[in-house]
Amino acid sequence: MLTPAIPLSRSNKAVKAILAATFPEYKGRKIKAEVRPTMQMWDTGFGDGTRSVYKVIEAEADGVYVQTSRPFSPCRKGDEGRVVELSKTVFVVEHIIFCGEDHGIRIYVHPDLAPKMIAAPAA
To answer: How far apart are CA 7 and CA 55, in angstroms?
Structure first.
């Protein structure tokens, strides 16, 4: 089942900390989260101006995030199509470049971790 992506704001405290731990150089505003138990890696190589870079962080106490190699390290071209099971303490953060254009940051988070770390969108 495809879960809808949740738009996030750079001003969200958790988003700031996640970006600082993964892509501190990212200055864009295209940030979304997907709440799901698994995620699939695509475009791990760089071809025709399209690539996704994946980084993994572990959630620690008090909103601190530390880069980790779990559940995979490093992401490489051979990982194309790989399905990764998300744990209750690890975020996978993806920076998407499609046809040379920045398509933003996507944060994959396990359903049990989402309510604690990422604010739900306004209803």
So the answer is: 19
